[in-house]
């Protein structure tokens, strides 16, 4: 395909993103998604190499074509592209981006404008629902100028009316997918509703907030965000959406009282950050729950007919006309309409980068040798942590040896399962590799049932190195030894918080083993990777963490973290004054972190051997060895068989630890027994 494609950049509602005709993009879904990743610049959290804005609000894409559905004029496919990770999610919908679809389609010649106003029926491919969209077209031309104002956007523009006809239950098949209007998850009442967008609605007061806080205040409340995410994951299962750790739906919403009987206050999450204003589809879902009886958001009882309801959000309000049928428990929402605006920002040609495409352009141009295109190393944690640092050292050194670009792609989430499943299902041609470690290939699979198997779904390429685990404390925690920490815990169980990089990761297992072997209890704070967990400890929101020496060493050296003990059989040369936990009288906490390079199962032995030779050459480089050692890691080179044996041994070991310590949640143990 051509790397240069037409593109129109638009502000649509309170979102912004590129609009494409379907014919402008590659035919296959895989190459289409790769093109969208390149267009937005998804690999980088700042999205500097694309038109994204470093936020989910500006990482949206609209794909438009003539409709194949009876009675509809246009098909609209919405894509939510990742921020800092190469992902494309076409399960949700976006009503804001929808407001730009008809103006874009008229200007591209897909539908003919009428003089004055033009109404077009749009079929949303994501949710298989219909929306009537009305735009102003004086002289049969789209105008963006007008006097309509929407909160969250400066200035005024021509109004665009969106009338949602059948968005209720569009994703799951039911307005209330669980069969109930209120469910209780971990002691919290929630309403799971599928109305234009699958939502999990919670009363703000039930999570200890007012619901009127600014988005920045909610985003800084890590305990709230963690609680919401745990509730959301369980709600996804209840709603029949499966494992939603890698998806943006259902969206979590906090609701509280409005300023009138016809209004409600909402804080909408995307899902791990609070929206600066509010999604249109989310507003329809919240106001549907507000209009109907028996939900956590229900307002006053309403008669059948049309009701003008108001959703209050951080940047203002959204007015929606909701049409009800029936009364009391028989009440249903028939339609909902609201006003948005849009503006064309720029039209031209987009240059897509080569590195986002993993498949060759044509079979005839494929080379019989490896590698024939850039190689991507998938890292299962966020940028900035120990895994990411090591992967980038390896990638930079492999590039000249393999005579190809070697890229690092961070795919954090689900404690490494998202990255692991991605690589396990990738083309087994050696161009997609994984920087795996003890968490992804032993601990997490031992703790819970996952969508991949650490042995069967991968071809080991080679060991990279290992790093011991430290027990560290915030410098202002009020204790400087393991003994003084134990005294605090015994006098106040649960009074100390520990940070972990996620369930099934080494910091989590080490903390659990420490508690099991000391008979103490700490409060856990879970993060998506070691980098945010170490920041949480540095900032004092957590007092204790069990990171790798590689991750913690710089902060121990500059005094911002205090090393209390080593979770290993012997003291470390790098920190000779720091005792082992065994010396402190605590046995059974031996957590060594190891790292290796993996390829998908069924990758050619010849390709594995070629990469292994290059990897071992990198690890023999004295400068690489020195860089690892300065950070507290030890290089371990070897053949693929050594890594295979390490995975088999460690997977079995941590399965025994989970069973003996009863570490797996009850529902996980039941799943594993099925």
The total strand number stands at 28
Helical amount among residues, as a percent range? 25-40%
C-alpha Rg (nearest Å): 27 Å
Number of helices, where a helix is a run of at least 4 consecutive DSSP H or I residues: 17
Binned strand content = 25-35%
Q: Which outline best applies?
A: globular
Q: How far is the N terminus from the C terminus?
A: 46 Å
> Sheet bearing the most strands, described?
17 strands, mixed
Q: Pairing-aware structural class of the strands and helices?
A: alpha+beta
Overview of this protein structure:
This protein has 674 residues and is α+β, with helices and mostly antiparallel strands. The protein has a 17-stranded mixed sheet that branches. The longest helix is centred in the last third of the chain and has 22 residues. It is globular, with a radius of gyration of 27 Å. The two termini are 46 Å apart. The C terminus is likely disordered.
């Amino acid at each position: 395909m051509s790397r240069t494609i037409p593109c129109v950049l638009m502000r649509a509602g309170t979102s912004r993103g590129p609009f494409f005709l379907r014919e402008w993009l590659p035919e296959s879904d895989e190459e289409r998604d790769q093109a969208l990743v390149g267009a937005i610049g998804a690999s980088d959290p700042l999205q500097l190499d694309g038109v994204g804005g470093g936020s989910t609000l500006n990482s949206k894409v609209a794909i438009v074509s003539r409709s194949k559905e009876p009675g509809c004029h246009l098909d609209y496919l919405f894509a939510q592209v990742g921020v800092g990770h190469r992902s494309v999610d076409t399960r949700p919908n976006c009503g804001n981006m929808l407001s730009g679809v008809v103006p874009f389609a008229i200007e591209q010649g897909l539908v003919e404008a009428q003089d004055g106003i033009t109404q077009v029926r749009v079929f949303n491919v994501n949710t298989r629902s219909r929306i009537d969209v009305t735009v102003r077209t004086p002289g049969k031309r789209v105008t963006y100028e007008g006097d309509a104002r929407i909160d969250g956007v400066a200035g005024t523009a021509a109004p665009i009316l969106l009338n949602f006809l059948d968005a209720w239950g569009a994703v799951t098949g039911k307005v209330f997918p669980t069969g109930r209007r209120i469910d209780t998850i971990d002691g919290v009442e929630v309403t799971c509703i599928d109305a234009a967008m699958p939502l999990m609605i919670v009363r703000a007061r039930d999570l200890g907030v007012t619901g009127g806080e600014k988005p920045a205040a909610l985003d800084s409340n890590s305990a709230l965000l963690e609680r919401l995410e745990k509730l959301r994951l369980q709600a996804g299962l209840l709603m029949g959406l499966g494992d939603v750790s890698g998806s943006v739906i259902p969206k979590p919403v906090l609701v509280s009282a409005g300023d009138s009987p016809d209004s409600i206050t909402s804080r909408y999450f995307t899902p791990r950050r609070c929206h600066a204003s509010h999604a249109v589809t989310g507003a329809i879902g919240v106001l549907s729950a507000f209009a109907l009886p028996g939900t956590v958001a229900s307002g006053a009882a309403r008669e059948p007919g049309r009701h003008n309801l108001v959703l209050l959000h951080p940047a203002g309000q959204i007015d929606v006309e909701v049409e009800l049928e029936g009364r009391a428990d028989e009440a249903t929402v028939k339609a909902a309409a609201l006003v948005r605006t849009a503006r064309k920002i720029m039209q031209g040609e987009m240059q897509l980068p080569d590195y986002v495409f993993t498949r060759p352009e044509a079979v005839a141009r494929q080379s019989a040798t490896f590698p024939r295109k850039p190689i991507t190393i998938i890292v299962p944690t966020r940028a900035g942590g120990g895994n990411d640092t090591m992967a980038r050292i390896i990638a930079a050194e492999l590039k000249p040896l393999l005579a190809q670009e070697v890229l690092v792609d961070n795919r954090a989430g689900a404690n490494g399962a998202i990255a692991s499943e991605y690589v396990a299902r990738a083309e087994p041609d050696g161009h997609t590799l994984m920087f795996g470690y003890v968490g992804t290939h032993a601990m997490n699979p031992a703790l819970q049932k996952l969508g991949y198997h650490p042995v069967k779904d991968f071809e080991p390429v080679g060991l990279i190195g290992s790093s011991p685990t430290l027990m560290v404390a915030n410098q202002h925690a009020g204790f400087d030894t393991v003994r003084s920490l134990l005294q605090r815990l015994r006098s106040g169980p649960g009074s100390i918080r520990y940070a972990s990089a996620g369930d099934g990761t080494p910091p989590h297992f080490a903390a659990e083993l420490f508690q099991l072997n000391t008979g103490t209890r700490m409060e856990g704070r879970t993060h998506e990777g070691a980098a945010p967990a170490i920041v949480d400890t540095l900032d004092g929101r957590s007092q204790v963490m069990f990171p790798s020496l590689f991750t913690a060493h710089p902060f121990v050296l500059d005094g911002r973290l205090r090393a209390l003990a080593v979770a290993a059989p012997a003291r470390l040369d790098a920190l000779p004054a720091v005792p082992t936990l065994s010396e402190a009288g605590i046995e059974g906490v031996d957590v060594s972190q190891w790292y290796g390079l993996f390829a998908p199962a069924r990758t050619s032995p010849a390709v594995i051997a070629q990469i292994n030779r290059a990897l071992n050459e990198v690890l023999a480089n004295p400068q690489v060895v020195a860089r690892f050692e300065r950070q507290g890691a030890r290089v371990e080179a070897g053949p693929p068989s050594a890594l295979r044996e390490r995975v088999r041994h460690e997977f079995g070991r941590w399965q025994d630890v989970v069973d003996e310590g009863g570490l797996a949640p009850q529902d996980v143990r039941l799943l594993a027994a099925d």
